[in-house]
Amino acid sequence: MAIAAVVILLALSGWVAQHPWGWLVLLGLGLGYWYWRRSPVTPTVVPPPRVLQPQQVKAELAEAHALLQELPATTQAPLQQTYEQLQHRLETPTVELCILGQSHRCVADLVRVVAAFNLPDCHLHQQSLSTVPQADLVLFVVSGALTASEFEMLRVLVANHYRLVVVGWPERSAEAERVRVHLQQQLRQLNLGTEHLLWLSEGQTQPLATTLTQILGQERSRLVWAGIYRRAQQLYQQAQTALNGYRRERAQPIMERYQWLAAAATAINPLPLVDLVVAGGLLVRLTWELGQIYQRSFRLADAEPVAKELLRLMVQLGAVELGSQSVGQWLKGNSLTYLAGSCLQGATAAYVLRLSGLSLIHYFETVPTANAVPFALHLRRSVQWARQQVGRSPLQTLGVSVGMVPPPTVERMPQ
Fold first, then answer.
1. Do 273 and 352 meet the contact criterion of CB atoms below 8 Å apart?
2. Would you say 52 and 226 are in contact if contact means Cβ atoms under 8 Å apart?
3. Distance CA 411, CA 241 (A)
4. Are 96 and 78 in contact (CB under 8 A)?
């Protein structure tokens, strides 16, 4: 867009030079472009949230609990406590009510108003826009039209199935009607209708009390179910992160054992490195052992295609430098340089096994099922990620323990 503007200006420069009043036209075009850039872009319409069912909530809790059973006792204890609290909430009718807003004064004022209502079985707390609230019902207080940060927070809340009431608390009564109309238009972009907006005049609080009483009386069970579902999803992610860390700790010594085996075997064996790693079965065994840690139910024979594809990708992506293998073989062919050739090939073999181990760990953590398609594409991404962790030099592998940075968390598919 900027390039097109420059081209147009250059084309007009000759015309402007011939017409004394042309600079006024050019100035007008510039002001128009500035105003267009300054105008807010219409946000993307948010799809309506799906209605949660009780069986979905129980299924989410069951999946989180299944992950917890795989954790060691010390790691499992605090997460298990959270799970038990969520189970207890299934039987309790208490609603977590959060008052959220960008204006601290408006939030504090509304908290005092709602606290005076003495709502039964309702826990009240206030929060800023810094984090997504842990609540079942959210009163989102605004003093005017939505700002960019307020719109984004509302979008997040809608996407996460929060029950929302946007409370309009205008600071200037003279502009209240115009602001209310604008606010309604913004809320429609979030699929929030007029029933989600409560517009309060100065000193008028009874409509809010009536609205909250109706919501708590008619929707209490649904609010509690939705809150438990969100917390169960968070618990699942926490348990998955903890489990991945536990599995990586178990995988670390296995990788180190195989990289040293590969280094020693390659240093004393005349076979080329690629043939040795595959024919000797080191990469196949490493694939199988790591698969057992990540509960991939394949046999040793099933690990061979994975290992061969992994090695093919490493050669294709340049992670295994065939030139260094040739140099190492040539050095080993000379009695004076045999030790140097052995060290070079040994370091390269250790590098291959280290890179393979990290690639497999990333693959097992980011691909949820063993039959993921396309298989090679997922594995290629894992090799690229592993190269960023290990680097490109095989000589850095021996004697240096390369730490494992957790791969990015993969979002679960909606149920």
1. yes
2. yes
3. 12
4. no
What is the residue-averaged pLDDT of the chain?
76
What are the tokens at 400?
């240096």
The single-letter code of the amino acid at 219 is E
Nearest-10 crossing angle of helices 54-68, 73-89 = 160
pTM equals: 0.70
Sign of the Cα torsion 193, 202, 151, 179 reads positive
Higher pLDDT, residue 77 or 12? 77
Helix/strand/coil for 188: helix
Per-residue model confidence (pLDDT) at position 387: 84
Distance CA 127, CA 102 (A): 9
Residue 54 CB-half CA count within 13 A: 6
Structure tokens at 374: 């396309």
- Rounded alpha-carbon distances, angstroms, from residue 68 to 65, 85, 162, 201, 246: 5, 14, 26, 50, 12
Phi, psi (deg, nearest 5) at residue 161: 65, 30
| Whether residue 276 has pLDDT greater than 60 | no
Q: How far apart are CA 217 and CA 194, in angstroms?
A: 20
